[in-house]
C-alpha cells in the first residue's frame, strides 16, 4: 500500500540536468516525508503545516525554473506546457485555503507530487528534456565542425 504514497527515486526520473534532478530528488523526499508525517500520530498540526508550506514553496519555485529552462530553448510547445505547470501551481496553492483537515491536505500534497513525478514528468516533461538534449547535442556538433 505504501507504493501509492511513497516515491522511489529511480533512474527514469533522471534528466541529466543536475538542477532538475536535484529538485526532483528533493520533491520525492518531500512527498515521502509528508506521508510519514501524516501517518505518525505524534506529528503536531503546526509542524505539518510548516512543512507543507515549505514544500509548496519548493514545488512552485521548481515549476517556475523548469518553465524558464524550457523557454530558454524556445521549445515549440512551451506555452501549453507552461499552462499545465500553472495549473499544478494553482492546485498546490489552493491546498492552503481548502477547508480540509491538515492531514487530508498533507496527503493531497503528497499525491500532487506523486502525480507530478510519476505521471506528468515521465510523460510530458521528459519529452521536453529529450528535445533539450537534442538541441545541446546539435550545438555541440556545430561547435566541433
Q: Can you give keywords for this protein?
A:
145 residues, 0% strand
Compile the SSE list and pairings.
Elements: H1 18-39, H2 45-72, H3 78-97, H4 102-144
Helix pairs in contact: 1-2, 1-4, 2-3, 2-4, 3-4
Explain how this protein is built.
- The protein has helices at 18-39, 45-72, 78-97, 102-144.
- The termini are far apart.
- With 145 residues, it is mainly α.
What's the short version?
With 145 residues, this protein is mainly α. 78% of the residues lie in helices and 0% in strands.
Share of helix among residues?
over 70%
Mean pLDDT: 87
What is the rounded distance between the termini?
54 Å
- What is the CA-based Rg, rounded? 17 Å
